[in-house]
Write a structure and sequence with these properties.
five-stranded parallel sheet; globular; FAD/NAD(P)-binding domain; alpha/beta; 2 domains; about 20% strand
Length: about 400
């Protein structure tokens, strides 16, 4: 199929990463087309649960040409983020097409073009492409033995909207990431009981240190050896959070850098979770072993070492909320063999290129301690400059 409308650059995704990339590409003199699978710009945050706020703080969350106003407070709310995102296209002077769910991204080597095909058959061609689909594209719910026999509801944390929806319920939250912890804590106000099931003890860190967001420490130590940063974070957890072993949350046995490489889970920064655990409003148990009807069999405690084992206990929840992460889906979406690792994460990021996929870039896949939004802002500028240079050189060669 031929398409006379060949774009200089297409950005897939209109979340913070895609909008930032499009803004910088426009500043570089290009005319990006942004394709977004949801009905409206800002939906990626508009659909988050009630009460969610940025953990990175107002100052460290600025995007290209988009600072949060002082009125947003120290920790901008969901509504403040949505307002910033939905005005991006008009402020940046670029176009977003919504309701475009991408099925395949192929490189046409003979024509040296990228071909993008949507699930409903729409067809786009571009000289370069920026994948801004994020790392939370496909929710994962584990296949627990016997889960089909569970009579209650099993849902992913990405579907969670309001704790009020679970009034009077006994809720089992799976996972020890920041979202799972915050959801569990919010549920304590309405649910009859809240239990958190995890495989390994999480890192729990203060959201701010004497008024400075933890992200500031991450920016300060960005280029430091991981072993040094790990020791700093362990010190912060021990001195500012304290020992929660008596409540089922011992200190993690692995350094944070290694634990993140394994499970890609960020530390818990939601302090009310710690208070709720100490007060007994949240019970901590180990991972699910099997489900038989309404009965869920879990280990009594989380593993503190690879060979540790614990006795089984049983729970009878009404609802299971799986805060068990996501897959990117990149290996199926982008037809470039070898571009992802065994966890489906891209081997390149920012302005890096893959040898068999020229002018293909990924943004928003790295979530360092220095903050995802800050990383996006830096990546967007580098990617725009790289694409501008490449297209200019190609045009000069063909002149």
């Amino acid at each position: 199929m031929e398409n006379d409308d060949i774009h200089d650059v297409i950005v897939v995704g209109a979340g913070p990463a895609g909008l930032s990339a499009a803004y910088e590409l426009t500043r570089a003199g290009l005319n990006p087309l942004v394709l977004e699978r949801t009905p409206a710009v800002g939906d990626v945050w508009r659909n988050h649960y009630d009460g969610v706020r940025l953990n990175s703080g107002r100052y460290f969350s600025a995007l290209p040409g988009s600072k949060f106003p002082l009125s947003a407070g120290s920790w901008p709310s969901r509504e403040e983020v949505v307002r910033l995102l939905e005005t991006f296209p008009s402020r940046g002077g670029f176009t977003v097409q919504t309701n475009i769910d991408i099925a395949r991204v192929n490189y046409d080597r003979e024509r040296d073009l990228w071909v993008i095909i949507s699930c409903d058959g729409k067809y786009f061609e571009s000289r370069s492409i920026v994948m801004a689909i994020g790392g939370c594209r496909i929710p994962i719910i584990p296949e627990w033995e016997g889960m089909e026999s569970f009579p209650g509801e099993i849902t992913h944390s990405s579907k969670f909207k309001s704790a009020k929806d679970f009034s009077g319920k006994h809720v089992l939250v799976i996972g020890t990431g920041n979202s799972a912890a915050e959801i569990a804590s919010r549920l304590t106000e309405y649910a009859s009981s809240v239990t958190v099931s995890g495989r390994t003890p999480p890192y729990i860190l203060p959201k701010n240190i004497f008024g400075i967001p933890l992200i500031g420490i991450g920016v300060w130590t960005r280029g430091w050896p991981s072993a040094v940063v790990d020791r700093i974070l362990i010190f912060l957890q021990r001195t500012m959070i304290g020992d929660l072993s008596a409540y089922g949350l011992p200190y993690p046995s692995r350094p944070l850098s290694k634990q993140f490489d394994i499970n890609n889970v960020v530390p818990i920064l939601y302090r009310p979770f710690v208070d709720d655990v100490r007060a007994g409003r949240i019970k901590i148990v180990g991972p699910i072993q099997k489900i038989t009807g309404r009965t869920v069999h879990v280990l009594h405690a989380m593993a503190t070492s690879p060979d540790s084992s614990h006795a089984l206990i049983t729970l009878e929840p009404d609802v299971i909320i799986a805060g068990t992460g996501f897959r990117t889906g990149i290996s199926k979406l982008v037809q470039a063999p070898g571009i992802t690792d065994e966890k489906d994460r891209p081997l390149i990021s920012g302005d890096q290129e893959y040898k068999d996929a020229p002018r293909l870039y990924f943004i928003g896949q790295i979530n360092p301690l220095s903050g995802l939004l800050r990383e996006i802002r830096l990546e967007a500028e580098r990617i725009a400059k790289k694409i501008q240079k490449q297209l200019r050189e190609d045009d000069n060669e063909n002149f």
